[in-house]
Amino acid sequence: MSTDSATPRIVLVHGGFVDGSGWQGVHTLLRNDGFDVAVVQNPTLSLAGDVAATRQIIDAQDGPVVLVGHSYGGVVVTEAGTHAGVTALVYIAAFAPDKGESVNSLIADPPPGAPVPPILAPVDGFLFLDRARFHASFAADLPAEQAAFMADSQVPWGVDALGGAVTEPAWRIKPSWYLVASDDRMIPPPAQRAMAERAGSTVTETPGSHAVYVSNPAAVAAVIARAAAR
Fold first, then answer.
1. Which domain holds residue 26?
2. Which among 20, 30, 42, 120 could bridge 50 via Cys, Cβ 3.0 to 4.6 Å?
3. Is residue 79 part of a domain?
4. For residue 199, what is the domain's CATH number?
5. Which residues of the chain have pLDDT under 50?
6. Strands of the 65-70 sheet, one edge to the other
7. Helices (H), 82-201
8. What is the mean pLDDT of the chain?
9. Is there a domain that residue 35 lies in?
10. Which residues are in the AB hydrolase-1 domain (predicted)?
11. What is the pLDDT of residue 4?
């Protein structure tokens, strides 16, 4: 771990349907490169709650923070990243909303021919992905057994989290990096590229499913390290 208070700390924020354990490969690589790394465990009940959980972890860091979000975690870091301790944002196959936008508004008009994520109808205010289609849609480049475990251990995603709108997007005042997963079947790659361009992000693209942070931790860690090096 770094003991230099000027060396950025890395804070990793997961998305919907999963928890922070998916960051283990990225965490290991970054720690091996000398970074302090913290992983947020979002309740994924509401955007406000997830932003509060993320800011709690940012507050605990002794030094500047590179804030990283995957998928819905991109909405969280967009809102939480205005924190004074955050020096850079990294989006990993993530939503990067503008002011007033939410996951709901960003997925309302998918590109023609884009695959439709197999999100089941809400039950008691929570969403799940169809377990039978989880592998193909979320984690096609992972072994079937690993994808099956992820499908069976899904975290309920609150509909209030999807409706949470960003108030002040951090990417308008902080530099950002974006990793596009070119085989993503949850957030269409064209949508990822458009959001990255709008945010003025430094863009890297790699083959990979929506679970690229699990399947290719080296590519993800490399982008984060470049953001930290700035």
1. 9-110+161-229
2. 42
3. yes
4. 3.40.50.1820
5. 1-3
6. 37-40, 9-13, 65-70, 86-92, 176-181, 202-206
7. 103-106, 131-138, 144-152, 159-163, 189-199
8. 96
9. yes
10. 10-223
11. 57
